[in-house]
């Protein structure tokens, strides 16, 4: 079938993207679903810093690339072997499909699925297939999703079925921002009730983590960002203290306000400097978690003696260390109860033709989560 899709042709073009237009809206051919695959009509797809890091060249991916990894939609057709979904079902995409049989999957850590990592690097679906073409030439998939498009063909293992009463523009956020942010808090950091928590980087994922920390029962929440507008939003969502990272006394002021640092500090900046700040804000005996994706050559130095003398813990979290089929229904239940107000993270709606403008807003810190709606 012929569809319109957002295709990245070349990385590293300068801002403003509304002028340089790194992402083109192209008519492409989409194959029907093969064995174990599903055709989904996209309803909403979120713009994320992970997409931006591909556009600016800091995370290499094969080109040309059909962009988009955070989305929700409606099943249009199922391929052979798919028996638990049918036309009309509502689904959320997960950007790490789980093969179910590799060592990480067998250990209950599907976010580290080895075939999924290989497929993402190769620009294919989990099966190794490429279902998007233009003039007979394959176009690479972004992490098996490619959701900035009218339709997507994806592995059944990239989809989580959800109830039809959840607005799809909010449901889309659960596949990345919520799963990553809340999961980093509850699965990786394992924040305890009454603990103090710091969040460094208050974009869509960081603010989702803030909501998750509140739901987990954190007693104090410290928000840190470079933009006062994001600090104000964090305050409105429940942060007890906020600090601007541009100020030279940011760490000292935050540590003083929390009697020597927080029990858990989570970094969502995607920059080594943000991780260093999060580590400095963590108290003796505390846990530092990073869920950002810095460039592959970024490095981070720490005093090695801290790990022993201060019993410090430093952990990484990918996809919120989640088991999506378990966690997404739980987070949706919290949303229904009003304990995880994910809808407040949505700050803009775009047409597909406005996607370059949307990435300008994201890069400039003018938006938290925007969705392309169809």
UniProtKB/TrEMBL annotation:
The Swiss-Prot or TrEMBL record annotates one GO molecular function as: zinc ion binding
Its needed co-factors are:
Zn(2+)
Alphabetized SUPFAM superfamilies for the sequence: GroES-like (SSF50129), NAD(P)-binding Rossmann-fold domains (SSF51735)
Keyword set includes Transmembrane = yes
Q: CDD domains of this UniProt entry?
A: liver_ADH_like1
Q: Which residues form a coiled coil?
A: none
Listed Pfam families: ADH_N (PF08240), ADH_zinc_N (PF00107)
Q: Which residues form the Enoyl reductase (ER) domain?
A: 18-372
Iron among the record's keywords? no
Q: Which Gene3D superfamilies match?
A: Medium-chain alcohol dehydrogenases, catalytic domain (3.90.180.10), NAD(P)-binding Rossmann-like Domain (3.40.50.720)
Residues passing through the membrane, by range: 166-186, 198-222
Biological process (GO) annotations?
Answer: formaldehyde catabolic process
Q: A Gene Ontology CC term for this entry? A: cytosol
Q: Which UniProt keywords apply?
A: Membrane, Metal-binding, NAD, Oxidoreductase, Transmembrane, Transmembrane helix, Zinc
Entry's family note: Belongs to the zinc-containing alcohol dehydrogenase family.
Question: What is the name attached to this protein's record?
Answer: Alcohol dehydrogenase
According to its UniProt entry, this protein's organism is: Candidatus Muproteobacteria bacterium RBG_16_60_9
């Amino acid at each position: 079938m012929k569809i319109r899709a957002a295709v990245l042709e070349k990385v590293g073009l300068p801002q403003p993207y509304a002028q340089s237009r790194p992402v083109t809206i192209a008519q492409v051919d989409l194959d029907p679903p093969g064995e174990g695959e599903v055709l989904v009509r996209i309803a909403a797809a979120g713009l994320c810093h992970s997409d931006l890091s591909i556009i600016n060249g800091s995370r290499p991916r094969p080109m040309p690339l059909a962009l988009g990894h955070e989305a929700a939609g409606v099943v249009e057709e199922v391929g052979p072997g798919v028996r638990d979904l049918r036309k009309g079902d509502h689904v959320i995409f997960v950007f790490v499909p789980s093969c179910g049989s590799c060592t990480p999957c067998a250990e209950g850590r599907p976010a580290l699925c080895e075939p999924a990592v290989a497929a993402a690097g190769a620009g294919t679906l989990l099966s190794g297939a490429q279902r998007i073409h233009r003039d007979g030439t394959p176009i690479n998939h972004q992490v098996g999703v490619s959701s900035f498009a009218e339709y997507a063909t994806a592995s059944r293992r990239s989809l989580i079925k959800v109830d039809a009463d959840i607005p799809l523009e909010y449901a889309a956020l659960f596949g990345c921002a919520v799963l990553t942010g809340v999961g980093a808090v509850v699965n990786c950091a394992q924040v305890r009730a009454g603990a103090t928590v710091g969040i460094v980087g208050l974009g869509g994922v960081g603010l989702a983590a803030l909501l998750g920390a509140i739901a987990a029962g954190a007693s104090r929440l410290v928000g840190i960002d470079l933009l006062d507008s994001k600090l104000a939003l964090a305050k409105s969502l429940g942060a007890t203290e906020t600090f601007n990272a541009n100020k030279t006394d940011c760490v000292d002021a935050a540590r003083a306000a929390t009697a020597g640092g927080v029990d858990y500090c989570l970094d969502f900046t995607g920059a080594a400097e943000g991780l260093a700040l999060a580590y400095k804000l963590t108290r003796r005996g505390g846990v530092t978690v990073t869920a950002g994706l810095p460039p592959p050559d970024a490095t981070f130095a720490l005093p090695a003696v801290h790990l022993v003398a201060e019993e410090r813990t430093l952990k990484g979290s990918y996809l919120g260390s989640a088991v999506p089929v378990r966690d997404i229904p739980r987070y949706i239940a919290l949303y229904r109860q009003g304990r995880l107000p994910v809808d407040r993270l949505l700050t803009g709606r775009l047409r597909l033709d406005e996607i370059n403008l949307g990435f300008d807003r994201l890069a400039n810190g003018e938006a938290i989560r925007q969705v392309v709606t169809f």
